[in-house]
Specification:
Methylamine Dehydrogenase, Chain H; globular
Length: 724
Amino acid sequence: MRSRTIGFSFLTFSVSLLCCPAVFAASAVMPSSSATSALQASTAPPVAAQQPYQVESPNGTRNDPYYWLRDDARKLPAMLDYLNAENAYFKAQSSAYQGLTDRLYKEIVGRIKQDDSTVPFKKGQYLYYTRFAKGAEYPVFGRKPVAGGFEQIMLDGNREAKNKAYFDVGQRAVSPNEQLLAYLEDDSGRRQYKLKFRDLKTGKNFTDEIAGLSPQVVWAADNKTVFYIENDPVTLLSTRVKKHVLGTDAKEDTIVYTEQDHSYYMSIATTGDDRYLVIELRSTETSEAHILSVDHPEAMPVVFAPRTTGVKYSIDHINGRWIVLTDWQAPNFCLMSVADAMVGDRNHWKELVPHNKSVFIQNFALFKNFIAINERSDGLLRLKVMSWNAPEKATFIQSDEPAYAASFGINAEQDTDELRYSYSSLTTPPSVYSVDMKSGVRKLMKEQPVLGGFKRQNYTTERVWANAQDGTKIPVSLVYRKGFKRDGHAPLYQYAYGSYGMSTDPVFRPAVISLLDRGFVFAIAHIRGGQEMGRDWYENGKLLKKKNTFTDFIDVTDYLVAQRYAAKDRVVAMGGSAGGLLMGAVANMAGDKYAGIVAHVPFVDVVTTMLDESIPLTTNEFDEWGNPKQKTSYDYMLSYSPYDNVQKKDYPAMLVTTGLYDSQVQYYEPSKWVAKLRATKTGQQPLLYKVNMEAGHGGKSGRFVRQLQTAEEYGFILHQLGMK
């Protein structure tokens, strides 16, 4: 999935690669060993050479003059020279506002409580938590005995990341006997993880290591067998579930399940009662689960219910029965149940919580006496609790704010009446609550500290509804500093994502305070393609209705300007990944409405990417974008693909970013797009391109270095608006 939460702390066709020794045009910036020459080169935009290349398809052939920028090995000197030239140009141009960027960075980092920790949660005989040391980039994962005692550091991210340009910890799983740790790490940003094992009594690792994996692992009950997902080395798709016995040769690991259909994503997890391994297979439209008792790792998994095109479901287990969240004859999903003995046939499922056309059920959590439901209604993410004995008496956990999000926290055990949940709004920092589901009594366990003089009463949030061109009402979440006047003079920062049914909730973003305190209005446009308003909201923003996503965003801009929330010449737009596609489309369709556009790791070469099934994610996403081998889809995708629709016209000031090792949106998509924009666009507005040469889709790792990326973005925006 080409997704990423951006700025807040988110491919080729089947022909041989063209390797060209000459990659720069005669006027292009060339690498030089001379510091003086390098400085001179960086003051002029790099110009990439054009090399004829035909991208063939069943529905036509297109010339792609920048195709040579693709190098799967990421070693082609000419390509690297071009990316380095772009970075040098970015550095030279951004030096004009480097002082502003530095000041923003200090502001943003200054709001972070450096020696912080999460609220501990109980699992077995221990309380588990994550903490940060002052000045440290990475978390420490620790635990303490419930009965009392000293801290045990299971994993110190700072120690593990030493001398590594990039580091990320995937899932961490403690064995049933609580003495062993299985964990996954990625040191490239490519999202290809290595599985390692640690003896928690000694703190020493076993020699067992397995590379090329997805970031999930599940223990069997025998405390020596683990299940993991092996990725295809070429497409990087999750294709096989295997099991490993600690102390044995990984080359002999048994294949537990193989997925033949590459349009499915794969994940593994345990049920809430820790009794079953669940292998979940999910495409855009269809899902299937296979289950295996962790008491019998030698057995093979059985299908929970055979896949049926257009039917999705997810499952959990409690007290001898399965609870099923499904859209079977229920577009907004419903909850059903089935006894252990009836697994295997969907016709045995019985209704538990019926379908509601006005309510989208997103998730659920199971407890001994209660079931908790996370649902979306009126565009908000809310929590509802009901007793197994009296489901008709469900109660909501209330909020006093007009726009907010409440979602499940870590609820690691079923044998409790305490529900942990997270709450946040655009003015309320992330907060962890516990609620006694019997009495309804709530307790605030922690509100994330925000330093630097932040006071929530200084800010106001509201929810408005913009009119789309087809009459649809688009919800928009807004936040601004108190004292703001709706007089049509304020700068506006507008964000959206709008793909894969992923909803963008109005939650607190500490970095945004730096914009609000400078007079900005911050807006989240809940455009179609997400799922804020239910399943239809998603269905009307995908495939042959994808353009609704783009026009909704533009219509929200028009509405906010017309309602005098913003000055028409001071609007900035931002999106990343599939939201970067949104930015590319908006730039082509209505670039004159924006003073600046920021596109992080943008998915902008839609047709060429989706023609190439060797590229990670392509086959998984035909149900999202369409299959361009089919003419109707080809023509429609081609009509909005940002790279294919670059025009000879003025574009707004633009900042584009990517990571060389991105596995979600390959670096050459934005590289080609920027190269084509440079060669085609008119006007004098700047186009800056920054390539992180040591990171992937999520950018650099580390909590402070990530904030530098945000400061660079905000510095660019403020500079373009003359807010120095």
